[in-house]
Amino acid sequence: MEGKIEYLCLSLEGKKKKKRNSVLLLLLPSSKFQVVSASAVELNKLRSPSGSEQKIVGEMGKERRLTVFLSIIWALTILYGEMFAYWVPSLWTCSWPHHLRHSSSSSVKRLNDSGDYVKIAVLADPQLMDRTSLHLSPKSLALEIAQFYTDLFMRRAFLLSVLRFKPDVLLFFGDYFDGGPILSDNEWQESLSRLKHIFDLNVLQKTKNMKVYFLSGNHDIGYEALYSKTPEVIRRYEEEFGARNYKFTLGKVDFIAIDSQTLDGNSQGNVTSATWNFIANVSQDSSSMTRVLLTHIPLYRPDWTPCGPYRSSPIINQRILRAPENQQILYQNYVTEKSTNNLLNMISPALILSGHDHDQCKVTHITKHGPVEEHTIGTISWQQGNLFPSFMLLSASNLSSPDGLALEDVVYAHLCFLPVQTYIYIWYMVLFIMTLLIVLFWPAKEELFSHYIGNFKLCFRSLFDGSVFGRVIKEKNEDENFEYEMMWDAEGSMHLIKKASKSPPKSSGDNASVERILQLTATVLRGNAVMRAKRQTEQEVEVAVACDGNVEFDARTPGPARMKTSMTKLVIRRLLRGIRVLSFVAAINVPLYMMLLFKDWVDK
Question: pTM of this prediction?
């Protein structure tokens, strides 16, 4: 303190606002003080010329840190939502089922070679959106946006999730197009091109020599009431995807694919009779290999049959709609009970795989050959009523059961889930709202939080020390003669300031006054502009400025007008800061998002 002169600028305003004087308090090293009158111009000369510059530099540094923080958060969010989330199945949550069985089944521990199993990836119900999906015009912008993001999700799911498992065979379970049976030939070909692009079918079949098998779905050829009147829908399907009823062998397992849309049709019709003739021929095959039944429409089960833990939507019961004129089937949720029993008895499958339901379901059928499990695979699309799209990994053994493998070790399945795209977009929206709130309302002075926390800790410590341990020490009895008044600083913090008591203190008046001024000066020099909350009857004292340059001093501007002007400037500064921060964050992350978008969309 020696040789240093502290000073404090106060603005004294009369009640009637006729006079406004500025007072300069000089705190001398001898703890004496002197009151000197000064004008606003003279006081401005005392201000540090570098104070405002330091304040601007400090605010720019804080804005820069906030911008970098938000940019990093957004970059990590976009990278996860657009890329990393699709790696999760192959890295953590999913694996080939024969790998999972190695640790628990002693009969397959010796099967360590990858050639012991054929690896099959099963996909169901992509159901590409078209003009029939949302009842929008074919070339509307809304439909094109919906198609793009739906197709993009399935392409990413296929390229980044399914293909990372390196399957040997792809098996599609029908419903490739939403409005397949009623699309014109041009619309159907356009949807077919999208399907081949999404799942990279041309590239996989030519370069990687991967086998691909297709099942027909009701959204591809329709039911009896439709295909009986428009047989061309079956013709164009078979020209592109092949036969609707066929058998193929993978490893030591026979896979029986049937056109389930025709099972419950008119038995005298050509289409239905062809399907049942195929089933009869398969049943006469004396092969001892394990059979897997493949059907788009699930088999019959009693109403309210539980679907297992992976079901996310309500259970769907049997529903069959028939045309009123000829009772031909318009729609059905499951194959009828009669057709189901005949099918199971004739095929005798060890496992049943189905689609159509768009949600995951696992049920057990009781047959004369024993219990048989049916797995219904959920849709691979995020726009078909299932928040949790999925696919299945199927392992078919290359070793026949006489070599020592049990039946359950010949073929088994594992369900895998894809990213929840809806949740990802919801998080994007939440993060955007949080970003707006932060850039608009984040305080310019980060010290406010530490200031509030410090006050809270001080109050808590005082309460803790006084109430719990009773260690309250009064060093001066004169404190009882003081009164306190509430005062607020410019940041909105409340302070209790001790004011002179009405009864004369026992100590020297000069010393008490000096102590009072020192206390007030110390408060102001910390950067707080203090204003009195209690109106005085004769004179209102307003601490208008501290001479360290933190607050502008204008003796000619009335208090309320100055506050209104300050609020307007604050709003403008916050808006400008928000625009700067958002522009910088967008400049970094929008190109990143677009790069990830088209990286997965373009052909490899």
Answer: 0.72
